[in-house]
Design a protein that fits this description.
By secondary structure, this protein is α/β, with parallel strands linked by helices. It has twelve helices and ten strands.
Length: 295
């Protein structure tokens, strides 16, 4: 289903929740890089996507966030970047079927920082190109750049995704620093990020991850004030606690959904969840959105 981003500006649409935390809860071994589940545990991936659709999500994210060449090398994973990303998009496409939802191909940060000269823009381009092409080939309706903290890096990824796929691009950054949590860990201000992303051609602008839904409102307000694009908001379910060496998120679906109304009033157009959220969190959000009249 073709994504007409502009049509989302006047209403509220529900997105899915977390992937890594949910796949691990559903039985994926902790030592396994979650993106490899597209090849080794495809039924887990399919089942989670379908659970989000049943909960009311109309954006389904591919399980491909860290599936770039450098991350695979760091983890010692012997798998094809193309195969992991294409298969991730194919599984999401299969889950969606004719249910009237969009598949968004997830691309995360490279893991290297331009500001300290760990990498150059020229070196980043083929990393993002490889991933974006495979996601498009697998049937993605849009490319999602998520959890970025460096403006320069996400702008490179945005240009590449636009150039090589021609698909709409959602550009989402993580704001978790500063007195009101309106800066990224690299110090980029939400308002400056919004303006830069819109100027570079992002079809949808937003924020995800961070320190929890209870802290995201100031960033949403700042983003909304500096972009005319539809606003994507997918916060975490609070902060995790470590249990047996694994992060555990305690925020209930009810508590998570209780923080949603102010975000909608502030102008969020697409609302979902990130780490720690699951289908029940999204079900609560979808029920709340269904009771609310459009902007």
């Amino acid at each position: 289903m073709a994504l007409e981003a502009g049509a989302l500006r006047d209403g509220v649409t529900v997105a899915d929740g977390g992937w890594s935390t949910q796949l691990q809860m559903r039985g994926l071994p902790a030592a396994v890089m979650v993106e490899t589940a597209n090849l080794t545990h495809p039924q887990l991936v399919l089942d989670l996507a379908r659970a989000y659709l049943d909960a009311g999500a109309r954006f389904i994210t591919t399980n491909t966030f860290a599936a770039n060449r450098w991350n695979l090398e760091r983890r010692g994973v012997n798998a094809s970047v193309t195969d992991l990303n294409r298969r991730g998009a194919e599984l999401a496409r299969e889950a969606v079927g004719d249910r009237g939802a969009w598949v968004v191909g997830s691309i995360g940060p490279s893991g290297k920082i331009l500001a300290v000269r760990e990498v150059t823009a020229e070196q980043l381009r083929p990393i993002y190109e490889e991933q974006a092409r495979a996601l498009a080939a697998g049937g993605a309706d849009a490319i999602l750049l998520e959890t970025f903290s460096e403006t320069a890096e996400i702008l490179v990824a945005l240009r590449v995704a636009k150039d090589v796929t021609g698909l709409p691009v959602i550009a989402s950054m993580s704001f978790d620093s500063g007195p009101q949590r309106t800066r990224t860990m690299m110090g980029a201000k939400a308002e400056e990020c919004a303006a830069a992303l819109e100027a570079e051609g992002a079809d949808i602008v937003g924020c995800n991850c961070g320190v929890g839904i209870e802290h995201v409102l100031p960033a949403v307000v700042a983003l909304r004030a500096h972009t005319t694009r539809p606003l994507w908001v997918k916060p975490n379910a609070g902060l995790p606690e470590l249990q047996d060496g694994r992060p555990v998120y305690r925020q209930s679906p009810e508590e998570f959904a209780g923080h949603v109304p102010p975000l909608l009033e502030a102008g969020a157009n697409i609302i979902g969840g990130c780490c720690g959220t699951g289908p029940e969190h999204i079900r609560r959000v979808a029920a709340l959105v269904a009771r609310r009249r459009p902007h």
